[in-house]
Amino acid sequence: MSAVTSVAVVGRDAAAWLAAAALKRAFGASGLEVQVIELPSLLQSPDVYATVPSIRGLHRLLGLDEDIVIKACDAVPMVGQRFSNWSEAAQPLMHAFENEPPAGADVSFIQYWLKGRAEGLKVDLSHFSVGASAALQNRVPLAGEDPDPSLSAGFGFHLDARAYANLLMQFALHNGVTGRTAISVEAEVEGERIRAVILDDGARVEADLFIDATGSDALLLSRLPGAAIESWRQWFPANRMLAASGPPLSDLPAFSQISAVREGWVGLFPLRSRTAITAVYDSTLISDDEFADKLPIVARMPVGGDAIVSDLSPGMQGHAWIGNCVAIGDAAVTAEPLDAVQIHLAHAFVSHLISLFPADAEAMPEATAFNRTVRRVAENVRDFQLAHYKLNRRFDDRFWNRARDAATPQSLDRKLQLFGLRGIVPLNDDESFFEWNWAELFVGHGLIPTDYDPRIESVADEEHVMKVQARMRAVAETVRSMPSVGEVLSSVVGANA
User: Fold this and answer.
1) Residues 54, 199: contact at Cβ < 8 Å?
2) In the prediction, which pLDDT does 42 show?
3) What three-state secondary structure class fits 234?
4) Chain centroid to CA 27: how far?
5) Is residue 406 packed enough to be buried (19+ CB in 10 Å), middle (13-18) or exposed (0-12)?
6) Residue 145: what pLDDT?
């Protein structure tokens, strides 16, 4: 048995450099050599990354200073995403990043709310969410000295995509990763293994393990037997994505704005120097030029520079690890830019690779467990995104009717059915979102359970009322003590934030 001593990351942008930095951080002390073969970037100037709170833990593990990230990447803290017009005249849904309650806690507060609602409570569920309340008040849930673990939220960031990829590159190189550039590469394949990659200048690069971060083309993995993309297009109604930029907002919000329109949706992702705009739509209902023309109207702001249009094909590799090649980022799974999951998925795949890093450079039996685990990760995220579409209540638009009427995966059907009965969310292994996140999504889109968990009947009426009132007070007090987005940014980048 021979150990893995060299890794070649072939790809581009944040996924490639994140993988390289993480692997070097985890195994560099044992002598692992990590090099990046950097291909031309696919990022355009309008592109943005929206990230969930786990990115902050990633940065801490890597040793990447958060203040540097904020300064270098035009960053704005983000506590959630607000979904407007997905259900016609209904109130917008704020999907906030509530933290998971500690194990062994009381019956989920969702059950208290459901019973209270059945008995006349008129307060929306969002008022009992620290994350939703913080986001709506443009406040950032920085941990205090003694945070209540049962009542807390986290935050991620909006990041300029090019700047973030460049920062990760500089950080990785500074920490011992080696890099070289190439215009194109060819994989030299022998059976189920890659022996080397051949660069356009003729150079030959060998490694024990190859990481494919080349994007949706999966230039390395696609050369191996058994590689195949499993399309999700039967569930997702859009086939185009458009990226553009608008002016900066004078009062920076703590959330992304996701607004449904007739042919898809438009997202606003505030940065300090501009507002990144991302639109997802169906080109069979409206042409690219027509959507670009209407973008200033639906985004409700002027659009500067070019609008960049690209194809959108959600799906994942049937096997993200084949032989000695592991795909991450869009080479492994392509998701819609909803719910801030793009960097999260790359991070999750890299984290599982580190925990299952091959002990034998030849056999690599860890691939089976890796593929099983990351499939669950990707499918759980897919189902969370699909729930937005499935529960929409726009009844006069072809796009939304088709999305609502489409068959859904059994895994999502199971969640919808059980929640609709008693407000219970049957969580799977390797979930990226917790019970409250799912419940907030379901209720916010209009799925109100017909009953509640009978265990809540063991709570006396007086105790039930006190619990509900105490939760409302605690949320208000907790959020009131939080700094605003502007205060957080001023403390890092100065008064002109």
Assistant:
1) no
2) 95
3) coil
4) 26
5) middle
6) 46
Distance CA 359, CA 473 (A): 52
Quick check: 270 and 249 in contact, CB under 8 A? yes
CB count within 10 Å of CB 202 equals: 6
| Single pTM value for the model | 0.95
Residue % of the chain over a pLDDT of 70: 97
Q: What token pair was written down for 470?
A: 């105490």
pLDDT < 50 positions in the chain: 145-146
Phi and psi for 484 in degrees, rounded to 5? -80, 165
Cα 361 to Cα 370: distance, rounded to the nearest angstrom: 16
Identity of the residue numbered 333: V
pLDDT value, residue 2:
85
List, for residues 30-54, the tens digit of each pLDDT value.
999 999 999 999 999 999 999 999 9
Instruction: With CA atoms as reference, report the closest residue to 140 among 486, 496, 491, 493.
Output: 486
Among 76, 83, 77, smallest CA distance to 141 is for: 77
Which residues are CB-contacts of 239 (< 8 A; sequence separation ≥ 6)? 233, 282, 283, 284, 311, 312, 313
pLDDT digits (tens, 9 = 90+) for 103-157: 656 788 999 999 989 998 999 999 999 999 999 999 999 875 445 666 789 999 9
How do the domains of the chain map onto residue ranges?
Answer: 6-42+161-231+314-373
Structure tokens at 170: 């500089």
Contact 255, 157 (CB under 8 A): no
* SS3 call for 290: helix
Tokens of 127: 């008022």
Distance CA 212, CA 218 (A): 6
The predicted structure's pLDDT at residue 496: 54
Tokens of 72: 């270098």
Of residues 367, 17, 41, the one with CA closest to residue 183: 41
Using alpha carbons only, give the angle 257, 82, 328 rounded to the nearest 5 degrees: 75
Contacts 24+ apart (CB under 8 A), 403-406: 403/236, 403/237, 406/234, 406/235, 406/237
Fold of the 6-42+161-231+314-373 domain: FAD/NAD(P)-binding domain (3.50.50)
CB 17 within 8 Å of CB 343: no
**What is the reported pLDDT for 89?**
73
Pull the structure tokens for residue 7.
């890794």
